[in-house]
Amino acid sequence: MSDRSEERRGPRSESSSSPGDTRGGSFLDDFLGSIFAVLGIGLLLFAISGVWPPMVAIESPSMEPNIDTGDLVFVMEEHRFPGPRSVRDTGVVPVYRAQKSGYAKFNLPGDVIIYAPDGDTEATPVIHRAVFWVNESENWYQTKAQNKFLPEDKRSCEALEYCPANHSGFVTLGDNNPTYDQLGSSGVSGIVKPEWVIGTAEFRMPIIGRLRLGVGSVSPVPSVEAAEIAVS
Predict the structure, then answer these.
(1) Per the record, where are the segments of Basic and acidic residues compositional bias (predicted)?
(2) Domain membership flag for residue 147
(3) What is d(CA 46, CA 52) in angstroms, rounded to the nearest whole number?
């Protein structure tokens, strides 16, 4: 009786340790498959956008309510599909030109650009709207600026550090900010040269970017700053 019991238990023990058991391998295969799927999607987006990485997370609120903190934004190389009436060979349509053609992005006229402030590629990029283009030496306060986007002590060309313009480029503005970025030491950046532009924002996925912001530098998705300007 006991011998038969041993015979029954023997095969079961051999089966549990059989070399054919693939449970551990299946987990590893699933894990590697997920990684390759994510990489594949990333490479596909890169092929479409021409920018790496093609997605950025928004970490501050100055583009609200059109782009919110925690949104994940798809970025396109600005020359790939330029909008109508883009400036020269920049591929960017600023607000004043977009108003004439009816072109809009994120609920308002003009392209939203991601750029390196003052050309500093080590700094957190800024995502703001391109308002107008200025030529080198242009008195852009007189020709294009609106006083409502300048503090009272900056309402002359002499009071603006970058007026006349020290080089050609874009004057930019956060949708939720009271003033242009180009205010000098109290602003965000100098006049944005075309080579400082990383790309244009194309669409957003709400909330998803909070996952990147939560894991910090571990994430392969970088964050960009919708920089706020405090006006006293």
Answers:
(1) 1-12
(2) yes
(3) 6
> Are 80 and 13 in a shared domain?
no
Instruction: Give the pairing of strands 55-58 and 197-205.
Output: unpaired
| 104 strand-pairing partners | 109
Give the Cβ contact number of residue 52 at 10 Å.
13
Cα torsion 181, 186, 191, 195: sign: negative
Q: Which of 128, 130, 149, 131 is nearest to 67 (CA)?
A: 128
- Average pLDDT over the chain, rounded to an integer: 80
Cα distance between residue 144 and residue 27, in whole Å: 61
Pair 99, 83: CB distance under 8 Å: no
Sign (positive or negative) of CA dihedral 77, 80, 84, 89: positive
- How are beta strands 72-76 and 104-105 bridged, if at all? unpaired
pLDDT by residue (tens digit) across 26-79?
767 665 665 655 566 556 665 666 677 788 888 889 999 999 988 989 999 988
Do both 88 and 175 map to the same domain? yes
**What's the rounded Cα separation, in Å, for the pair 24 and 29?**
9
pLDDT in tens, 93-151: 999 999 989 999 999 999 999 999 999 999 999 999 999 999 999 999 999 999 999 99
Q: Do the Cβ atoms of 141 and 120 come closer than 8 Å?
A: no
The tokens for 199 are 């790309």
Domain that holds residue 12: 2-45
Residue found under tokens 């006006």: 231
